[in-house]
Amino acid sequence: MRGRLIALTSLAADYCAVCESAGEIEKEEFIDAMLNVLPRIYWEFFDISADDVFLLEESGYFSSYVDEDYYESIRRHIEATLGPDDVFLETFEEDMKYSETPIAASVAESLSDIFQPLFDFISVVKDTEGERIEEAYIHCKEDFESYWSQTLCNVLRALNHIKYNGN
User: The pTM is what?
Assistant: First the structure.
């Protein structure tokens, strides 16, 4: 199991590196990289059960490694890379049930919302030299199940549309 978590850490690091380089790469390259890594991240977090991860001691609290300025920097670079393609219609928004008008969402914000827990995950693993990989995974898995799995599915749909249909 530890080997799978190490591979997942590498995959998460790849995702974070693409987000961090958004301001330096072309839009098509960025979209291709996201379409490559996002489904794999989803699969790994879906496939590895928290019950399969063995903890020697009770899981502790992790502070966030992503402050507001860093989050905004990532979001702005992605938004600038995508330009007008950053906006998509969100169909799974809770408020959509009560709205007569479409609700717009941001690809950049969605990807930044995924970046934050993944960056925290890899940072804990790195700072503890892998000693707390199981704990970090459990925290990230809980966040995945409660909110960013849906975000990932929604933004994947939007990126697929940009890639194959243009906006």
Answer: 0.88
Q: For 123-149, what is the mean pLDDT?
A: 92
Distances (CA, A) of 5 to 51, 78, 100, 137, 155: 13, 27, 44, 8, 24
pLDDT at 64: 87
Residue 45, C-beta contacts closer than 8 angstroms, at least 6 positions apart: 8, 140, 141, 144, 149
